[in-house]
Write a structure and sequence with these properties.
three-stranded mixed sheet; 294 residues; alpha/beta; 9 strands; 14% strand; 49% helix; single chain
């Protein structure tokens, strides 16, 4: 297989669109599909062909990359694509799907003779657009050269977690990482809300922790989105973060542990979404601290 591939990107939201652009810039032939075609149309300016169906997108593709909302959505779209999938093609599954769903997706791949890679990513809009995502991947080493050009185009680094994507080792690591991201984001929102309620200038808090072990670039970046009213366009949307938080809680429950902070995060994110912030950056969970629109 040559380094220049035909790649199908299914799902062109915040992450999928950026990945498709980087694949095209790397010289690959890219066909993309999105449930809402209008959202995918801007990709034509990057030389990407937009298709009317998943099946049309995956026809003759060397690699199929899925970046959809969740596991059931990924399975549904791949079932629509099934008639045109080429046996032996690689499937790079980058949706944060959850542990249970990965087993279903891997089973589909076996039925269709696809080489399955469990490959969620760490990063938000900005690193995605820059091709600087961290890819967590599991899949057979003998076929990795076939997907390396795709992973190299969308990410700065790939961390391999196992030989069998069906085991979900990459997804497990992604859930652990996201549990930290979501907890930290919600804690930041509460810090700002408490500062406001107590009449404390948030900058005084930042000055107190400056340069010490409690200081974090992430804290300052996310708080800046709130303080400077830059929650749109989202780096990682409230609605998607709520979905991921639910997957984290479910994973904990299935393995016999209570994740109280993650469960509280689900409630805060869902409350913020209900207030109208679902499509804003996940930092907008801050608004869940207030009973009225803020």
């Amino acid at each position: 297989m040559t380094d220049k591939l035909t790649v199908s990107v299914l799902g062109t939201g915040i992450m999928g669109a950026a990945m498709a652009r980087n694949l095209a810039r790397a010289g690959h032939t890219v066909r993309a599909w999105n449930r809402s075609r209008a959202k995918a149309e801007p990709l034509t300016a990057d030389g990407i062909a937009i298709t009317d169906s998943p099946a049309e997108a995956v026809e003759d593709a060397d690699v199929v990359l899925t970046m959809l909302y969740d596991g059931p959505a990924a399975l549904d779209v791949m079932e629509q694509a099934a008639p045109a999938l080429r046996p032996g093609a690689a499937w790079v599954q980058s949706t944060t799907a959850g542990i249970e769903a990965i087993a279903d997706l891997a089973a589909f791949a076996r039925e269709r003779d696809l080489v399955f890679y469990d490959a969620p990513v760490l990063g938000t809009r900005q690193p995605a657009e820059a091709g600087q995502l961290l890819i967590l991947a599991a899949g057979p080493s003998e076929h990795r050269d076939a997907v390396a050009p795709v992973l190299d185009a969308v990410g700065a680094r790939t961390v391999w977690t196992g030989e069998d994507g069906a085991e979900g080792s990459a997804t497990r690591l992604k859930l652990v990482a996201n549990s930290w991201v979501i907890a930290t984001t919600n804690a930041m929102g509460e810090v700002l809300a408490l500062s406001q309620a107590l009449g404390v200038d948030p900058q005084r808090f930042f000055d107190v922790i400056a340069g010490g072990p409690l200081d974090m670039g992430y804290l300052r970046a996310k708080s800046g989105l709130i303080l400077n009213d830059r929650l749109s366009p989202a780096q990682f949307a409230v609605g998607t973060a709520a979905k991921d938080a639910r997957l984290i809680v479910e994973a904990g429950e299935k393995h016999g542990i209570r994740l109280d902070v993650a469960a509280a995060s689900v409630e805060r994110l869902e409350r913020a979404a209900a207030q109208g912030h679902a499509d804003e950056d996940m930092a907008a969970a801050y608004f869940a601290s207030f009973d009225e629109q803020h």
